Model the fold of this input.
Amino acid sequence: MSNGRELLRLNKMPHIWCPGCGNGIITSQVLRAIQELEWDQDKTVIVSGIGCSSRAPGYLDFSTLHTTHGRALAFATGLKYANPELKVIVLTGDGDSAAIGGNHLIHACRRNIDITTIVFNNSIYGMTSGQYSPLTPTGSLATTAPYGNIDRTFDLSQLAVAAGATYVARTTTYHTNQLRDFIKKGMQNKGFSVIEAVTHCPTYFGRRNRMGGAVEMLNWQKDHAVPIRAAERLSEEELADKFIIGEFHNKPEPEYCERYAQLIANTKGQE
Amino acid sequence: MKKPVLMQGNEACVHGALAAGIGFYAGYPITPSTEIAELLAEEMPKVGGYFIQMEDEISSMAATIGASLAGKKAMTATSGPGFSLKQENLGFAVMAEVPCVVVNVQRSGPSTGLPTSPAQGDVMQARWGSHGDHATIALSPYSVRESFDVTVKAFNLAEKYRTPVIILLDEIVGHMRERIDIPEPGTYEVLERPKTDLSPQEYQPFDAPVDGIVPLAPFGTGYRFHITGLTHDRTGFPSTKPAEVDYKIRRLTSKIEMNTEDIVEWETYNCDDADTIIVAYGGTARSAQATMELAREKGLKVGLFRPVTIWPFPEKALIDIAKDKRVIVAEMNLGQVALEVERILKQDIEKVNKIDGEPITPQEILDQIEGV
Amino acid sequence: MKKQLEVRLSGAGGQGLILAGIILAEAALYDEKNAIQSQSYGPEARGGSSRAEVIISDNEIHYPKVISPNVLVSLTQDSYNKYKGELAEDAILIVDETVEVEADIKHTVYQLPLLEIARVELRPVVANIVTLGAFQRITGCVSYESLETAVLDRVPKGTEELNKQALAAGHKAAGDLLAR
Done:
């Protein structure tokens, strides 16, 4: 297998991400997943919203659509629905998908439209220099939470499960092989898939919260991520400062575009 | 006996969309435009088209743009509050030059206003609703039949100029039922989306002349390019270079303004001998027609100038017909098109405005003419 | 008939007067006249009083709203009270017999047991079609044949015969009244 350079727009490099940013790790696993599943470069569309992670499509040599803040899934829904032949991947961030785009996320889950959504969860608004998001841990510092964040957080993966996504998994930028595996499974799921990729923002989250640089933050991920099975054996206290990784949901349900195709067939049959 | 067809303006809009080859509709329920969604929900599957009710107005606009990028002729419809919600993504369609049709069946505002009452208060919002400099194409039909015609034309203009086109219906025309003889296919022009003759290697999605466009290659056809709401260069990738930014943003306006004569449409009635010209559009033009008849019965020389295209405004035609005559602009707002008419004619004009949720009556315009 | 006839049909929401307005307008089209129908929207269409308006003309109709009705139809007291304003000087009223009109009213009033005919002889739901039958007999502004064709176009399948009877019953009741 090639090293994947042909899937990149090398002339658009260098990218805008800060040194040590985890976005490149996730993006590279997306590309490897596409490569390993042999998705057609000409039939794959990558859609994003606004934010650091949403700048990824500009570097990827596919049909790419960089939309408005929070709305990537709504654009992607129109694209996929209007041409179900297209393979559609959405790259989004925690602010993009859980705050301004939260409504679109839950409804995309509910419809179970065949789109794979990868949430780059770096716990912060990076593009605007470090404001808290719905996934910023309570107590953390942010420019708009100088005394510590008093908001409760979403468990985005559980939200996606509850809203009806048919494949939901979470892992981290430390667990790259698992991340690629989950992305592939999401892409293979005929339905709506959410892969929450916990990543690190040394510049705006790490520095303010005294978590060190990229290496320390990756180690933090390793130390605080608990696989589902292991978590089952731990008490609430033991899990208090941890987060759970793994596949939360993998259960096929009728896919939205297929249902509509059926509706068209039935309607025409009645004519 | 041939079955006569009685239809609402909203329904005629749907038939116009179908005649134009609509392939995708996304919408959200809102009065007084809901009939458009309801009828398309019924009709679209029959023609193999895609109908989707989205979770809100914002996503309806977004999905419409997404579907257009997939190569479908796409439309969404809404009313007042929904039109406000669509503005950000409408601006995206302007910036990314994605053809689509946005119907706004105007109701009384601001805010929730009078949901079932007519108004024409969104004329300036259609022009300037989204942030940043751009030009707009907006059409306003005055009859059920014209709702059909204007919708076909809106799709044609959207594809020709790679831009969103707004249909400013109003509650009067949207909801009233009158006779329509739907024209036979082949008797009206339907433009298909222009195709590029460049190879994927040569293709640049925004490498357009100042007065034109580059055909938009649908996603998934081997043309791999980037679409963004960030200001971009001819290749479609973000750029902050002043010369490239300047060219891009000026072109968003010039590609419309330099083709004004191709875009604009208007009607005149009894203007030849008229010393008084009423300017009215949409539902209010119906009142003005009746006024004109009442006035003529009294021997008053009154004519009517009726822009079908509100943006760009048929500037030249208005000057030819109304310059230095007595001009009365009647509209269901506090004087939005009146501003444009004043700007064009550079003379004092009179206004008949109504914003109480009721249509302007023929008598009210006549009273203005007679100085009552 | 004068060159433009303005009709206001009013009653309680759910009595089917909006449908009656659409049917009347379509009947006028069958007669090769012009017609415009409009109606009240919103919560009042679901209870309370509702109205449909139809303009019928041999000429082109410009202003689509009724300004001063030449015919007011009211099936309920509430709707009569609400919509009786601005009548044309020569206006006629066609009202259900349960509607009390002012003793000194200057308009010609036709009071008919429209709701009762529907309820007793047919089914309550066809009161609107009974009304159209009476309306046709009294005003003659559309032909009976066109009206019947328009009714059959619009009513649910399987109810054609019932609606034909309703139209005829209203027509007859009005005929009887005129004969008296």
The CA atoms of residues 206 and 212 of chain A lie 6 Å apart. Chains A and C do not touch (no CB pair under 8 Å). Chain A has one domain: 22-270.
